[in-house]
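Okay, can you check this protein?
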Amino acid sequence: MIQELNTVLKPTPLPDFVETQYVRDIIDRALAYIQAGFPVHFRGPSGTGKTTMAMHLASKLGRPVVIIHGDAEYKTSDLIGGESGYSFKKLDDRFIHTVHKYQEDMTKQWVNNRLTQAVKYGFTLVYDEFTRSRPEANNILLPILQERMMSTPSIKEEEAYLKVHEDFCAIFTSNPEEYAGVNRTQDALRDRMVTMDLDHFDYQTELQIVIAKSQLPYEEAEIIVKIVRGLRESGKTEFDPTIRGAIMIAKTLAVLGILPSKTDKKFRVICQDILTSETSRIGSKTNQERVRAIVEELIVTLT
């Protein structure tokens, strides 16, 4: 059993996790859904804290955690396990010295993967970006979430069906379907979970996160957050800048010992580099110039 459970994590709250009222409201609702017996699905654009919310929610449940990251190459066996290798048993019977009985048996070995471990032992499953796996691989989740039963292709009769442990619960995350590499969720699976659509954090939450991650003073962190939010609200970029952009800027400034200032060229260049990277997939000159112009305007206004 020790060998089988080497992929299990002990959930602990992140030391710099910020729990504002905005975050607390989401977690409280998600806990209520899980306590009512429903899986929770955090859906939203990149940078809206889906995975962090999922792990924080898992820590609130107090059970060991099994994490699966969605992958287009997954098959059902990558989730539940399969037959891997063989076990050998050899009998050499010489009880009667004149009789020599020799017998050798070879049987296939069944090895559990992470989903089976969570189902069997009642762990919390965090299935991150589950829509990046193909729908046919995720079909095994349907009877687990609805009938609380899992079937396996094991040739052993006692392993063919596994009852879901009463403490098992599942937390899913995903990007919207228009994102590259994302598959459409089958309706039957979507119908078995409560989907909570997450958007960018509110102002105070973004500010507190940037302060916690960078240790910058309040006033300096506020300037960075206002620049990122101003660019986002302009609606003129290919993609909205996220909290990650604000954290990257703040951490870089903290390392360099630079404070946000309209007279500091390095500060402006760092903002432009990071926010251009965040807001465009192809890095067009048009986007670069647009971001540069907006950032310059915001810096002059806010500092």
Summary: The chain has a mean pLDDT of 85. Residues 170 and 270 are 40 Å apart (CA to CA). The beta strands are 40-43, 65-69, 81-93, 101-112, 124-128, 149-151, 161-163, 169-174, 194-197. The chain has three domains: 21-77+114-197, 81-110, 203-302.
